Amino acid sequence: xxxxxxxxxxxxxxxxxxxxxxxxxxxxxxxxxxxxxxxxxxxxxxxxxxxxxxxxxxxxxxxxxxxxxxxxxxxxxxxxxxxxxxxxxxxxxxxxxxxxxxxxxxxxxxxxxxxxxxxxxxxxxxxxxxxxxxxxxxxxxxxxxxxxxxxxxxxxxxxxxxxxxxxxxxxxxxxxxxxxxxxxxxxxxxxxxxxxxxxxxxxxxxxxxxxxxxxxxxxxxxxxxxxxxxxxxxxxxxxxxxxxxxxxxxxxxxxxxxxxxxxxxxxxxxxxxxxxxxxxxxxxxxxxxxxxxxxxxxxxxxxxxxxxxxxxxxxxxxxxxxxxxxxxxxxxxxxxxxxxxxxxxxxxxxxxxxxxxxxxxxxxxxxxxxxxxxxxxxxxxxxxxxxxxxxxxxxxxxxxxxxxxxxxxx
Length: 410
What we know:
By secondary structure, the chain is an alpha+beta fold. It has two domains: 2-192 and 354-405, 3-Layer(bba) Sandwich (FAD/NAD(P)-binding domain), CATH 3.50.50; 195-345, Helicase, Ruva Protein, domain 3 (Orthogonal Bundle), CATH 1.10.8.50. 30% of the residues lie in helices and 27% in strands. The chain contains twelve helices and 21 strands. A six-stranded antiparallel β-barrel has the order 13-16-15-14-17-18. A five-stranded parallel sheet has the order 7-2-1-11-20, covered by helices on one side. The protein has a three-stranded antiparallel sheet with strand order 3-6-5. A hairpin with a 3-residue loop joins β5 and β6 (99-102). α1 (10-21) packs parallel to α5, α9 (272-285) packs across α11 and α10 (304-311) crosses α11 (324-335). The protein is elongated and about 85 Å long.
């Protein structure tokens, strides 16, 4: 069987390897000048290839359509991926949070390993070849059309052209147009794992300030749509950082482009009562100071003026003149600092795309289209996404492998 894989990213390379492993003649077409262009910039150039966690933990980190990928992950899981990369000569290491990276800290070693394996398995690789259409005969796949107008005939096609995140790598959602023309439903793509924009203008004072060990809640009406603990970073437009990126995926899924409330707990390790006692001790030691000079031991210097304004207590007020009610108000601001989320940054800053091909139109056991025999999908084209930590790349590896191995009986 002659198989064409469109897209030479993580999912496409894995699909090509799996299909070639089944004995098929495989042709991999990539629109860029090299394979794995997006891999080079993941993990800040280090490439967090997967997460060395148990299966249950992996599924807990999937945001969209967790059940759809059960079969794919169990068919080619994180441990299988690690074994394959090390077989290809890319030594790996596991860091905090079970994140797996190349020992060299060079993403290029991941692509080098996969490229070597593609060569070993006899996969034909053609660069600067963009697929713009899939041809069909009697409702089944018969080939592809490239941007140069070339018609390439084949028995099966695996579309792995990516989503819209990191558009500088060539990801523009073109594969969805092909799928849509063949009758597939596309769940509207949205940027995910991306910074949040705030209505309040904290950026001028707080831009660049990182807060560690804080809790964040996103509240839509009376419903909490996300709650997490970690690190945030203030920016000129709002907030970013690992905790915020995770929160953004749930915001996009539940209430994209709507105004909702973000609540920060700056002292999550303390109850309201414990924090109040801490303030009493601090205020006793600084009883003759002005309020604005009495919070150094509690908050970063740049954050103090903002929290003072939020508390409504006069900055010049002597600490020994602060009432119990005012102190309680300060506790509330420290434990429940509310701000307004107005949206997310665009695809240019998004790590992943949420949305894509409706998974009900895809066979989860093979990744084959239920509408067009011989057409398979993999990676970010599918309406599947996860949190940070190597989970999204593992989805690409697993669905790519599932698509390629789905041809083994062909």
